[in-house]
Amino acid sequence: MALVQIDNVSRIYQTGEVQVKALQDVTLSIDEASFVSFVGPSGSGKTTMLNLIGCLDKPTQGKIVVDGAEVDGFDRRQSAAFRGDTLGFIFQAFNLFPVLTAYENVEYPLVMIKNESVSKRKEKVLNVLESVGMLDQKDKFPDQLSGGQKQRVAVARALVTQPKLVLADEPTANLDKKSAVNVIRLMRNMRDEFNTTFIFSTHDPGVMKEAEVIYTLEDGRLV
Ligand code: ADP
Ligand code: MG
Fold first, then answer.
1. Does the pTM of the predicted model rise above 0.85?
2. pLDDT tens digit string along 56-94?
3. Domains, in order of start, for the chain
């Protein structure tokens, strides 16, 4: 069974008189443990696509099933619970808390959504920091880390709750070429290690070639 199934999905934004067809009749499916990229120029619908899969937005038409749940029918509370249980997010701008250390940033989702013993929590945080190669930097604050290192911390934070699926909207947009490719390879290694499905977007050719499955969007349509 596919982890993500998207059937005839459209997302139309209505602003006053103007209609924008951000996605038009998209059908696709994404297997468990795959490493998938949505590519296309700015405005092609990548963010809209990831927001729909991530239960952050609803389609105007069509059906979206993630991990067996028909998420397009969820209300806000159900969406929030589903995101907490099943999804991890990595952002373009890293979005780490500046006043928390790398360790504390990774620990944060566990404190927020899982009531776990302190020792179990510590074990999970240290394990995932080690997996992303940031154990020796764990007490540093985001300001003291490079862009590539910050994104490694963000990858660890996305993985620490052991989600089925990690969504990353242009995770390398603020990185130099070498760090960008390294972060994507790190994500792929994490897929190998944890069987987590990764879906990311990019318009960088050097980054997209690291994906195993590529979906190209153009004006909201799959090409
Ligand atoms: P990408 O991430 O590929 O740059 P987006 O998914 O952000 O593309 O946008 C797709 C289209 O939808 C664009 O034309 C964009 O201007 C439009 N759009 C996105 N979000 C909104 C919104 N909240 N209201 C109106 N139009 C939007
Ligand atoms: Mg975008």
1. yes
2. 999 999 999 999 999 999 999 999 999 999 999 999 999
3. 2-222 (3.40.50.300)
Q: Which protein residue's CA is at the shortest distance from atom 22 of ligand 1?
A: 13
Contacts of 199 (CB under 8 A, 6+ apart): 4, 30, 36, 37, 38, 50, 53, 165, 166, 167, 168
Closest C-alpha residue for ligand 1 atom 14: 43
- pLDDT, tens only, 134-179: 999 999 999 999 999 999 999 999 999 999 999 999 999 999 999 9
CB of 46 closer than 6 angstroms to any ligand 1 atom: yes
Instruction: Please enumerate in sequence order all residues whose Cβ is within 8 A of that of 160, keeping only pairs 6 or more positions apart, or say none.
Output: 106, 107, 109, 110, 124, 125, 128
Please return the burial class of 117, using the count of CB atoms within 10 Å of its CB with bins 0-12, 13-18 and 19+. exposed
